[in-house]
Amino acid sequence: MDAYKIDDVARETGLTKRTIRYYEEIGLMPAPERSEGGTRRYTRAHIEHLQRVISARDVLGFSLQEIQAYMVYAEELTGHREVYPRISEPEQQLSKLREMDGTLDRQLSQLDEKIGRILALKEELEQFRTRVRGGIARLEADTPQTSEPKPNTYTEGTES
Fold first, then answer.
1. Number of domains in the chain
2. C-alpha span between 23 and 16 (Å, rounded)
């Protein structure tokens, strides 16, 4: 198992060391093991976890609270996927698949809620843009268009 120092994790994820520590502090990332000297020792799993957090933050626009809920669902699904192949009884497989389905429903519901808010904001901005463009069109129609060039206030060779 490779161990990474916080500098390595920061470089690979693009996060600051302070942000990585903060995410650990608020429970957004599992705490890494520490060396005898107290240095954090991150794993590839920590880096991948942080990359999912970054994706939820940047791509999905989730708040930290939303990311926490999203990551709980993601971890549940990972757990289900790891356990399922070892289940041999059809009844237990069915039960595990139903658990996975419920987790997916909750995760999709969270995404649908976020998409709904984004679409509402988009609609609001589009309506505002329509009103702005209407104002532009009215003002352009009401403003007399002159074909005469505006007088040049600068004449070459004169000093102010």
1. 2
2. 11
* Same domain as 76, residue 38: no
Verify that 124 and 137 share a domain, yes or no. Answer: yes
Q: What is the pTM of this model?
A: 0.63
Per-residue pLDDT of the chain (160 residues; tens, 9 = 90+): 689 999 999 999 999 999 999 999 998 999 999 989 989 999 999 999 999 999 989 988 888 888 888 888 888 888 888 899 999 999 999 999 999 999 999 989 989 999 999 999 999 999 999 999 999 999 999 988 765 655 655 555 555 4
- Token pair listed for 154: 């600068």
Task: Answer whether residue 67 is part of any domain.
Answer: yes
No. of helices (H) and no. of strands (E), the chain:
5, 2
Is residue 15 domain-resident? yes
Asked if residues 74 and 107 have their Cβ atoms less than 8 Å apart, the reply is yes
> Which residue reads 């942000």 in tokens?
19
Domain span at residue 18 reads 1-59
